[in-house]
Amino acid sequence: MKIDFAGQVVAVTGAGHGFGRAIAQGFAAMGARVFGCDLSAEELAGTAAAAPEAISTDAFDLTAPGAARAWIARVEEKAGKAIDVLVCNAGGVRGQVNRPLEEVPEADWHAIFDINLHAAFNLTAAAAPGMKQAGRGRIVTISSGAGLQRSLTGIQAYCSAKHGLVGLTKQLAFELGPFGIGVNSVAPGFVPSNPASIAQFESYGPEGQKRLVEGIALRRLGTAEDIANAVFFLASAQAGFINGQILSVDGGR
Ligand SMILES: NC(=O)c1ccc[n+]([C@@H]2O[C@H](COP(=O)([O-])OP(=O)(O)OC[C@H]3O[C@@H](n4cnc5c(N)ncnc54)[C@H](O)[C@@H]3O)[C@@H](O)[C@H]2O)c1
Fold it and tell me: pTM score > 0.90 for this model?
């Protein structure tokens, strides 16, 4: 099986760092024209440096009013066609840590929902019309093990928003399937790939880290490449009859 995205237009959010960078660079290596957005233009430049002719980037805060829809319009305009593959990857805990429920300000609750769930709603709503017209499209959301059970982070909003993203994925698969559009999700396990997850891992100490790894059947932590590979498969023609699925990529728990 040879996965190929030659000539396809691929849009990846959160492309400046971590999973998003690996996803954007991997799609480019397989022939796609990749459009990435993130908060930091500097980090995006680091992503594009791997394949400057194939990766085009824009700094966008996807939680600003209208921004997610505006970015999709910009990608379609730059590409001159509908998006073939949309990866809703931007997310995370927004610098927050585990706190008792009664100590969580309402604004912090909303901040996590804004990027992990509301941005995905706006991105998919904006990309769907072009995909429907083209009669094809693949959408992959990046949810989390925290979208299927409690979160290791202990952050109530993160667990709730990722559960919401799983629900959105399943619902859109049913709604958009008749138009030839598949919608699936990758649910990563714990990967120390960003400042928050690295700090979390370090806070466990040697004993806690050993316990975490021993709780994974394959006895190792995942990598950004492990996550990206699952996205490539779900976005590929070979996964064309897979729809509405949540693929856990966590080494087996
Ligand atoms: N690392 C893990 O352990 C893990 C586990 C499960 C799920 N996830 C999910 O995977 C996705 C990627 O995580 P990662 O580990 O690569 O983290 P990361 O922090 O390296 O990447 C997330 C990217 O999203 C971007 N982003 C955040 N808010 C944004 C906004 N308002 N507008 C535009 N971009 C924004 C960030 O700048 C960052 O580059 C996230 O959705 C995260 O919730 C991560």
Answer: yes
Nearest residue (by CA) to ligand 1, atom 25, is: 14
Ligand 1 midpoint to CA 149 (Å): 19
**Strand-pair category, 55-59 with 246-249:** unpaired
- Give nearest CA residue, ligand 1 atom 40: 91
Per-residue pLDDT of the chain (253 residues; tens, 9 = 90+): 899 999 999 999 999 999 999 999 999 999 999 999 999 999 999 999 999 999 999 999 999 999 999 999 999 999 999 999 999 999 999 999 999 999 999 999 999 999 999 999 999 999 999 999 999 999 999 999 999 999 999 999 999 999 999 999 999 999 999 999 999 999 999 999 888 889 989 999 999 999 999 999 999 999 999 999 999 999 999 999 999 999 999 999 8
Q: Rounded to 10 degrees, what is the CA torsion of 49, 190, 199, 64? A: 60
Q: How far is the CA of 178 from the centre of ligand 1 (A)?
A: 30
- Atom number, ligand 1, closest to the C-alpha of residue 16: 39
Instruction: Indicate which residue of 158, 183, 185, 187 is catalytic.
Output: 158
User: What is the atom index within ligand 1 of the atom nearest the CA of 67?
Assistant: 32
